# Entry
Amino acid sequence: MLNRSGQEALQCGQAGLNTPFEMFFQQALTPFEEFIRDESAGGILLMLCAMAALIIANTSLFETYDKILHTQIGIGFGEYAITESIHHWVNDGLMAFFFLIIGLEIKREILVGELADLRQAALPIAAAIGGMLVPAVIYAFINYGGDAQRGWAIPMATDIAFAVGILVLLGKRIPGALMSFLLALAIVDDLGAIIIIALFYTDNIHLGALGFAAVCFIALMILNLGSVRKPLPYYFIGILLWIGMLKSGVHATLAGVLTALTIPAISKCDMGMFSGRIHELMIRFDKVHKPGKNILENAEQHAVLQGLQNYVHRMETPLQRVEHTFHLWVSFLIVPLFALANAGIPIDFGSLGEVLFHPLSMGVTAGLVLGKFGGIFLFSWLVVRSGISRLPESVSMSQIAGVALLAGIGFTMSIFVAGLAFEGQIDYLVKAKIAIILASVIAGIVGFLWLYVAGRKVVV
# Structure
């Protein structure tokens, strides 16, 4: 038999007519579990969108697809209007929200996650550094002195959604600590990519616009220091910061990261006070309950609900609230749209061999598949061997090697960097995208098989 709370929960579910889809998104999950669920499901959708774009680009639909992407859309009025193609709005506008989420994840990991303890963080930090340096060196060596050497940063990135999705498929064959290692590594990897974009893929700086962006960032910091917890002021100034960055010549998406770093990560409510107050409100909620009455008819009960909501908002940090608000949108809309807009590559199969053996393509493929594996595994081994850090519980070096292979899936960020490196150079950009997709497929399949063999069924 169900107890009273179980019966009420069942009745509540029936009354709401929850579909399986709704129940999937309403499960009570920890922030870590929610992140993994969203990333893995988003990774599957990302893969489907990339495949759809490839198919469209190699059929009679390509002309329509290309025309849509180059359609100009203006926002604003008069001399203050910003007019860009849909392709640019996706890459420079919507992807700012992707970088906002990255910034929030970086801040959370540094404050309370895998990167909070220096000894614990040493392993994923070293692994990420190795996974950035070695691929860049391999690419630079293969393309040294050539026209394509500007793309040296393309194989440095890891696509967290794809990699997490593959780890989730392995289920109980891998320990949970391996997932934490991958997430920490990917977040440091993303931080490195952000720094590289800011330093090496910014050509002409407009000091006036950059000064305006700096004023906006200072305003955001003042909001933080002033303990402003409402997200709306951060959103508004963040948009102004994005405009300043867009006009300055520094890539506009970095505004997302800068905004994220200023969003408060401290709760306004004491844990003991919160627990006591919630308990009092629940007692009052039960006391004013009127059986058979809709809550719309019960002003007292509705007031209690409002009080509960206010206290939950005071307890929840703004960082958590903003991340929760945008994470689903980024995973299920923005990143898949990016894949649709950027993975549509017309492939001339007659000259595919020539494309794959071009130094640019070889540099990207070797960097992602061999460089990521070698750099992450070698630097991880050195850090563990030297005693600076240790392997996570139940994780073996063989499994670290499997993650190192999966890190060669560079899809989203690699394509993003390729677009910056070869802007206006369509031939090079196509070669880079083909190589990124090929390398990501190889890394994903080999990494999955490696971890499947190296893993063991975990008994729970």
